[in-house]
């Protein structure tokens, strides 16, 4: 019946599924598999070659119009070169992004591969130190001209974590990618004071040893009209350098990331906010020198901002956070580990402006926030899809009630270390329940009534019982259980010690759930059996330190969760070699397994699993089998 549908109809249906569901549907029959290979459905699929190239299914991908190819940790052997060249030539027409993450390839191979990819829009050279080591990359003018014509459509360039990057090699790379709009230089050891490398009299001389900030600014000046994104995270950029960047003529950035740039302080942020008012995304996580003046300048000047990350900027207080209400277009806010920020500050900043289109909120480790903030936040911003409240230790069941009542579209929910949450919360019971009113009929202390008590008839008694049943059913349907969040895909309940089998068995029922973390929760096999039956889409499951689960739980996981690819069972001492055999027999897609500190699982059983299961990529086996070394 499934194979009788026209391929075009099946392709149209598959467009409404996510990648994981699409992969499952492709296994139904040959017609559905061929429909899943339609170019429209391949735009968000990435082909990943990792390490060993002895077996690469070139024949199976030759007819697929893949757009994204990632080559990870490949060596410079002849076999690797042959495989890479064949792959890129077969995919050259459709290939849009190409990544060489940590690849150890030669300069000539690099040039030959890129010359065959005529439609690339994105190149990622993260940690590719080998091709920059000699300094001879693209030193021939013929190579420069060839790749300049070939890579004219490249808009994104990632040069992160390259220790050997110099002015000379950087200039050559940006010469062949002359239309670049987005550039990443995360941890690329940019030198911000070049006096030690270049004499003052020759300040315009490019260095063949290091990448200088002056050279980077020259590049930014040339590309100012087209450049929209810069990432200088984990570099030693200071306020003066940031101000210099912000003052480049005709530069109108939309995205700037400065993660862990610890020398940046308020002065640089204030200068940036005055000059780059077109910014939509700003990430200053781990910039410990940024305090209230910098955040206040951001709120006052960057009115087009849609995403702001302030994680671990620990000098920030509620005084500046309350000014975030000026950012009327803000969609994403990350404020984890802001220990001085209170509920009142966040409420004034995020809840005062009801028109703010907030969808992603991260408040993890903000230990001063309370249930009152969650009540306001959830009622004013009901379209939140991502909420992280990890380690907000003051939150209680009332917060769970507000989340389940208002956030119907939420997809990501993290409540790790919220120890005050109990079964009553996830089951939807409010704390402040009004006391039951006395029955209308029957014996009571109503002295004002002059009516003589009359024994109820059988008909009246039946009607009363029926009415009570209807009220109970109505209250049950209106109860805001955790399982009512039907769109949930990621759920983290780790170390919520108030949860038990009683509540979790009834609420862990999500058709779309991909990730579930129950680390350190005192559950038994009962919960595991229930969740394995009611959550068929689970791909990542964490049950570490759930000491009461046994081999029966692992058998249920292996049999009922066919999509599972990551399983953490560390410190589960009741598990034995039987669990490993169940995984060996039924978990055909398992890629990562953690059984560390499982005393009753033998190393021999794990060895047998690794030999027989082709999908396994990593097994964490520390101190298995009762070893103490």
UniProtKB/TrEMBL annotation:
<dbReference type="Pfam" id="PF25372">
    <property type="entry name" value="DUF7885"/>
</dbReference>
<dbReference type="GO" id="GO:0031146">
    <property type="term" value="P:SCF-dependent proteasomal ubiquitin-dependent protein catabolic process"/>
</dbReference>
<dbReference type="InterPro" id="IPR036047">
    <property type="entry name" value="F-box-like_dom_sf"/>
</dbReference>
<dbReference type="Pfam" id="PF12937">
    <property type="entry name" value="F-box-like"/>
</dbReference>
<keyword id="KW-0833">Ubl conjugation pathway</keyword>
<dbReference type="InterPro" id="IPR057207">
    <property type="entry name" value="FBXL15_LRR"/>
</dbReference>
<dbReference type="InterPro" id="IPR032675">
    <property type="entry name" value="LRR_dom_sf"/>
</dbReference>
<dbReference type="InterPro" id="IPR006553">
    <property type="entry name" value="Leu-rich_rpt_Cys-con_subtyp"/>
</dbReference>
<dbReference type="GO" id="GO:0019005">
    <property type="term" value="C:SCF ubiquitin ligase complex"/>
</dbReference>
<dbReference type="InterPro" id="IPR001810">
    <property type="entry name" value="F-box_dom"/>
</dbReference>
<feature type="domain" description="F-box">
    <location>
        <begin position="1"/>
        <end position="45"/>
    </location>
</feature>
<dbReference type="Pfam" id="PF13516">
    <property type="entry name" value="LRR_6"/>
</dbReference>
<dbReference type="InterPro" id="IPR001611">
    <property type="entry name" value="Leu-rich_rpt"/>
</dbReference>
<protein>
    <recommendedName>
        <fullName>F-box domain-containing protein</fullName>
    </recommendedName>
</protein>
